Amino acid sequence: MNNIDRMFTRDPVAFADAYLAYLRAVLERIDTREVGCFIKTLLDARARGATVFLIGNGGSAATASHMANDLCIGCDDDGQPFRAVSLTDNVAVMTAISNDFGYEHVFSRQLRSLGRKGDVLVAISASGNSPNLLNALEYARECGIKTVALTAFDGGKMKAVADEGVHVPTDFKEYGPAEDAHMVLDHLVSAYLSRIIRAT
Prior knowledge:
Helix content: 55-70%
Number of domains: 1
Shape: globular
Strand content: 5-15%
Structural class: alpha/beta
Distance between the termini: 49 Å
CATH architecture: 3-Layer(aba) Sandwich
Largest sheet: 5 strands, parallel
Strand order of the largest sheet: 2-1-3-4-5
Number of helices: 9
CATH class: Alpha Beta
Number of strands: 5
CATH topology: Rossmann fold
């Protein structure tokens, strides 16, 4: 039984209070030094004209799309936008790869076509154990693409194999707080990037 199960009550107001209190506690345990490293990696990619690729499954796929939007559009204040691409957005490509090669290759095969040495791959996952994300991280490492893992639960295998990452410390199967926190990280990072770009 995880924290969400333990806090459940039939009283919706009490549940809302407990959920938000728990989410605040999760956010407070994020290592801000990891966030700082992530920001520096993104700024370095922008300075070099490298592409930032984002990947994830389910809710994390939506986070990948949202983050690509925030980097490309939300941080374009000086005419030098981030080159950010979510590999979760092309349904035709994703279904073709899944059908022909298997879903575990849905991101690595796209990186084969689009990725270049010096690019950055951001993999987003609560469990950190999705085969398609791990395959993409392995391919990226072989090709000289820097890897960042945004994880939760115990970080899974992704936390160990990525070059760097930001870990959200939640209990197992707490997908809501994990994905909530990943979106907070997106908005935190984007808020900083848009302002530091304007200030330079």
